[in-house]
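Ticket #295: bound-state structure for zinc ion.
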Amino acid sequence: MARIPANTAQELLAASFSGMVFGFLEDGCQEFEQSYSSSDGGQSSQENEAMFDMDDDQEDAGEDEKDKKFWENQNQILQATLCRTSSLETTIRSVTKEAVRESAGAGVCGCGKAASGCRSCLMREVCGRLCNAGYDSAICKSRWRSSPDIPSGEHTFLDVVDNSSSRKGQVRVIIELNFRAEFEMARASDKYNRLVQRLPEIFVSKVERLQNLIKILCSAAKKCMKEKKMHMGPWRKQKYMQAKWLGACKRTTSTPPFSMGQSDRLRLRPKSSMLTVDLLGEIMPNMHCAAVAVV
Ligand SMILES: [Zn+2]
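RESOLUTION: The complex was predicted; output attached.
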């Protein structure tokens, strides 16, 4: 038996250690490490076509440097925020991903509207799986009125309310199956697109973390549109995004009929119990305190 050379052993140790640590992380984290180090160069020239009014800005030499700093900073705080994930979030994420993967494989849609599954059927499926796994999961529908800042709208997503930790009290975890798509913009700059590409498509997050991400992404969208000298749609605003996931919503808990994955732990739930969660009152005071510095 050949002995493993010392440096290889060290590498193995380091690899397994990082595997241990990164095993808990959001999927985007490792990708981030790679893409961040490889795509760092050659960014400065890419926005030139967007800046058709360069002459006026030329005298302000510090402006370019400031822009560069802004995007670097957004990338860094986005990475840090994505990676700061708890074991509760990690477990819920893996149940969610498995349900999505299996639904895609099954290729059926309960409502019969779509050949390969629609968003609402997928959400019902994931919600049922999470309930089967013992979580208090529900389909949440938020709805908000128009205000001077934002138009009215509604959004449907999933959540889990966890009461298992006596230390932390009640913890709410938001599950969005199409998270990245919510922030994609058709005519965005490369810098903005790169930021959005770091987001996972299936996003599982506690309320506070989601709040921070929204802040980061919306200020990036604002900056992007300003750089491109374009008007930003009001549905891109931080307030609008917050209303989607963090405003008042109606939680619908239901146990869909399941042919598979039934566990003994499955408790019977009322067919559809409606309760209203209003988190806005708790969220509002924090909205303006920039917990994540946006420079
Ligand atoms: Zn369907």
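RESOLUTION NOTES: Residues 6-28, 30-55, 257-295 have pLDDT under 50 and may be disordered.
TICKET STATUS: resolved
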